[in-house]
């Protein structure tokens, strides 16, 4: 289950703390952009698909954005993802 995997991740990373977990299922790794600026972590996942059907073109567009503030004392260059 997701919770068991999360607990394993938390237990295996003794030095680092998990700030956030995002479900980006259905997105390719290159669809996900993470930027760290001004004490905030910004996550953007965008996916666009185009299908040609008998009725014409169909577009499927999905987007997730999330902004997480870094806890006090955590510097921007410590952030990994």
TrEMBL record:
InterPro entries tied to this protein: A-crystallin/Hsp20_dom, HSP20-like_chaperone, ODFP
Coiled-coil residue spans: none
Keyword Transmembrane: no
Main subcellular location of this protein, as a coarse class: other
Subcellular location: Cell projection, Cilium, Flagellum; Cytoplasm, Cytoskeleton, Microtubule organizing center, Centrosome
Domain SHSP residue range list: 1-81
Cellular component GO terms held in the UniProt record: centrosome; motile cilium; polymeric cytoskeletal fiber
GO BP: any one term: cell differentiation
Keywords, in A-Z order: Cell projection, Cilium, Developmental protein, Differentiation, Flagellum, Spermatogenesis
Transmembrane found in the keyword field: no
Chain's role: Component of the outer dense fibers (ODF) of spermatozoa. ODF are filamentous structures located on the outside of the axoneme in the midpiece and principal piece of the mammalian sperm tail and may help to maintain the passive elastic structures and elastic recoil of the sperm tail.
Family: Belongs to the small heat shock protein (HSP20) family.
Protein name in UniProt: Outer dense fiber protein 1
Species this chain originates from: Chloroceryle aenea (American pygmy kingfisher)
Gene (UniProt): Odf1
């Amino acid at each position: 289950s997701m919770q068991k995997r999360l607990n394993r991740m938390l237990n295996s990373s003794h030095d680092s703390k998990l700030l956030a977990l995002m479900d980006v299922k259905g997105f390719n790794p290159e669809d996900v952009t993470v930027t760290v600026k001004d004490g905030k972590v910004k996550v953007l996942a965008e996916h666009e698909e185009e299908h040609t059907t008998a009725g014409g073109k169909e577009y499927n567009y999905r987007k997730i954005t999330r902004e997480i503030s870094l806890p006090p004392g955590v510097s921007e260059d410590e952030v990994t993802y």
